[in-house]
Structures are given as C-alpha cells and as structure tokens.
Amino acid sequence: MSATAPTGDGLDHVDERLLRTSPLRKFLARPELGSVVGAAAVFVFFSLVADGFLRASSLGTVFYAASTIGIMAVPVALLMIGGEFDLSAGVMVTTSALISSMFSYQMTANVWVGVGVSLLVTLAIGVFNGVMLTRTKLPSFIITLGTFLMLTGLNLGFTKLISGTVSTKSIADMEGFPSAKKLFASQLTIGGVDLKVTILWWIGLVAVATWILLRTRFGNWIFAVGGGADAARAVGVPVVRTKIGLYMGVAFCAWISGQHLLFSFDVVQSGEGVGNELIYIIAAVIGGCLITGGYGSAIGSAVGAFIFGMTSKGIVYAEWNPDWFKFFLGAMLLLATLLNAWIRRRVEATK
C-alpha cells in the first residue's frame, strides 16, 4: 500500500493517516497534560510553603481527600466526555448511604441487605436520569437539576419521617457491619503510612475507566456521542444505551461513595452532599475534560482530584485561613482550563 497520493500539482502528498506521530507529539496531545503540569506546580508550591506537607502521614491524608472526590470524578469525567452532566451526583451519594442505613435499621436485617437494596435503588436513579434525558431530549442540566432537588427533599423528608431527626440511627452494632466497614471504610498500613481503602477503590476505578475509554467499543461510543450524538447515531452508535450506561456508572460510584460515608461514621446526615457535584465537575474539567464533550480522560480526572486534595490539605498544613480555599479552587479551575485550551491549540497547529 502506497503512502503517497498523486495530485494535480504534480507533487506526491503523504497520506496523513500513515504518518508516524512522535512520542512527544502524542504526549502533548494527551488531555491530562495541563492538569499534570498544574499538579506538579501545586505540589512544589505547598512543599515549599507548608512544613508538614511532605510528611508520609500528610501525604496519606492528601491521597484520602483526593480519593473521596476522585471516586466520583471518574464517572463524571466519562459522562462529560459523552457530552452530558449530572448535577444530582452529590446528593445521590447521600441517598445511597441513607437507604443502606435506614433499610437495615428498620428491617433489623443484616447490613449487607441494606447495602444490596441501596445498590439497586441507586442504579435505578441512574437509569431514571438516562431514560428521562434520552426520551424528553431536554438538556442534562435540567433533568439532573430536577433529580437533585427531588433527592434533596426525599433525603430530608424520609429521614425525619423515619428517624424523627435529620440523621439516621447508628447501625454499628448490627450484624455484617464489621465486614462491610472492612470493604468500604477500612484502613491499610503500607510502609508505615496509613491509607484508606478508598484510595484502592479510586485507583481501581481509574484503571477500569481508562481501559474502557481506550480499549473497548463502548469507549469509542462515549467519544462519538460526546463529539455529536446525531453523527454518532448515523454511523450505528447506540446513543441511548451509551448515555444510560454512563448515568448508571455515575450511580454505581455514588453507591460506593455512599457506603464509605455510612461505614466510616455509622450515621448519616440527610443534608450532606449538596454542592459536591460541582467539585466533581471541577476535578474533571481541571483534568482536561471539555464542557462541550468528546474530549478528556479518566487519568485526567484523577489528577484533578489529586490537585483538589493537595489544595484542601495544603492550606491546612500551611496554616492559612481555610476561607481562601474556594478562591484557590476557582483560580486553579480557570488556569487549568486556559492551559488546556492553549495546549490543544498548539497541538492542532502542528498537525
């Protein structure tokens, strides 16, 4: 097969599909490049200004803070690559925890029964979001905003109706609690450093999501749908199934985060989770996902979550006023977005 094609000007032009791309250009084209540069800068900055930042125990705390955001940032990133949002992700985490706790307590059942029921209900919420989106053709912002408001009301209403207060009853003495805590909220000691099990969940989810995006047909469908649903449908991509699957992915990770919340403290406050959905989106955007869809990576979302963890804990170790945290988070969001846009323009200009 020839790599050249004759043209009317008498010159042979190389088919761009057969051109070899240098490793450097491939690296520069990665969505997470800007976030990696930003993460390195944040790490160096807090290493210099915060005396205790580089301690092993401090880094363990940073990774834990990053993992609690990163577990949800992974499916949110995939959803954004697919061109959609989920504003109900934050309260869905709380909903998952509340269902597990209240079902187990009220039915006096093994807590694993409540965990299983919670998984089914949480996945059903994800299916609801996906079906409503694909059937009504309304923007995902409107659909998931409605779900956010409904879940917020249900979380508070049902908790007060069943428990009489805004928090659930303790289930720490119930059968199955120790084994469930070991899976969702245990602590490991590696090299003298205490690490929460959520870090392992986070790493595993990033690995699976990266494999899906880069090595499976479903990953191709996600990028195609995010690039343009109509064009993707025209070439045979099952748009409806893909979007419903993405919302179920968000729901599944919300279930994992919810169980961690429950088994870490054995009680749940019904008002928790409000506002976290924006943090998940911020982590994904800092990690290189475009608001318009069709571009991004799971690894980038992990780096974005790591930046969040470093910033939230670095401010504490530097003994700064934590009131400034949101300012730094917003500044990083803008800088990362500008850096990502600049890198993309540079790469496209050299093609």
Explain this structure.
With 351 residues, the protein is mainly α. Helices cover 70% and strands 4% of the residues. It is built from 14 helices and 4 strands. The protein has helices at residues 23-28, 33-49, 56-81, 89-106, 111-136, 140-163, 177-185, 197-215, 217-227, 229-234, 239-265, 276-286, 298-317, 325-349; strands at 4-6, 12-14, 187-190, 193-196. The chain has a two-stranded antiparallel ribbon with strand order 1-2. A two-stranded antiparallel ribbon has the order 3-4. Strand 1 (4-6) and strand 2 (12-14) form a beta hairpin.
Instruction: Estimate percent helicity.
Output: 55-70%
Strand order of the largest sheet: 1-2
Strand content: under 5%
N-to-C CA distance: 23 Å
Structural class: mainly alpha
* Alpha plus pi helix count: 14
* Rg (CA only): 22 Å
Residue stretches low in confidence (pLDDT < 50, at least 5 long) are: 1-19
Q: How many beta-strand segments? A: 4
Short description:
The chain has 351 residues and is mainly alpha-helical.
Chain-wise SSE layout:
Elements: E1 4-6, E2 12-14, H1 23-28, H2 33-49, H3 56-81, H4 89-106, H5 111-136, H6 140-163, H7 177-185, E3 187-190, E4 193-196, H8 197-215, H9 217-227, H10 229-234, H11 239-265, H12 276-286, H13 298-317, H14 325-349
Antiparallel strand pairs: 1-2, 3-4
Helix pairs in contact: 2-13, 2-14, 3-8, 3-9, 3-11, 3-12, 3-13, 4-5, 4-6, 4-11, 5-6, 5-11, 7-11, 8-9, 8-13, 9-11, 12-13, 12-14
